[in-house]
Design goal:
220 residues; alpha+beta; Archaeosine Trna-guanine Transglycosylase, Chain: A, domain 4; 5-stranded mixed β-barrel; 6 strands; globular
């Protein structure tokens, strides 16, 4: 079992209804995503979230699909900390908790979107997956090869101290893959399958892919 804060609800108590925040970036369990809230609708959603379970459903936009403007799978982020600013805006840090599947979209509340969420396919997000040392070394070798090839500086000493799942899931946030590629990484069923897909994407990408900042573009 992954170490959990005493403030985080058990898997069985994840909410049936969830506010969603469409964003061109893929939050994953354990990932850390900073957001800036400024619009009245976002601020109202934030207040409602603090009154309930502190969860916001991140979901990516689906381009050129007449059936739906968002992907059916996203990840809930828990409001871990926030800072009120003098200009009336909020800086928020979300920590990815668990992925979910959208069953249906519900009527909006206070101007923000809500969905009925099904968590049942993603119980493993609450568990620790065993990945062999050889598989970890192969993945880090792919990273090192790519970053060295593009003269990109990485603190390997710090990276080597982190659990491999934390490394992978945070790199998804900060590397400039396409929306579709990030969605594939998000929906990968296991950490190992995500690592394998990540390595393939690195090989296919010909230009430096570090993006800044690790946030994304808000989609209305």
């Amino acid at each position: 079992m992954k170490p959990r804060s005493p403030f985080i609800q058990p898997f069985e108590q994840l909410p049936e209804e969830l506010p969603i925040y469409p964003l061109e970036n893929a939050l994953l369990p354990g990932g850390e995503l900073p957001l800036e809230f400024s619009s009245p609708t976002d601020l109202l959603m934030f207040v409602d979230v603090l009154k309930t379970d502190h969860l916001i459903g991140l979901v990516q936009p689906r381009l050129h699909d007449p059936a739906s403007d968002i992907y059916p799978v996203g990840c809930a982020g828990r409001v871990r900390q926030y800072r009120e600013r003098k200009d009336g805006k909020l800086n928020i840090m979300l920590t990815g908790l668990c992925r979910y599947r959208i069953i249906e979209e519900l009527p909006m509340k206070n101007g923000y979107r809500r969905v009925r969420a099904d968590w049942s396919d993603f119980r493993q997000d609450y568990e620790t997956e065993e990945v062999s040392a050889g598989e970890i070394d192969f993945f880090k070798g792919s990273l090192r090869h790519y970053f060295d090839r593009h003269n990109m500086q990485v603190d390997w000493e710090a990276l080597d101290k982190l659990p491999i799942e934390q490394v992978v899931n945070n790199l998804v946030l900060v590397l400039n893959f396409s929306i579709d590629s990030k969605q594939q990484l998000l929906e990968a069923s296991t950490v190992l399958s995500r690592m394998e897909l990540f390595s393939r994407l690195l090989e296919e990408k010909g230009a430096p892919i570090m993006s800044a900042p690790a946030q994304g573009r808000r989609v209305n």
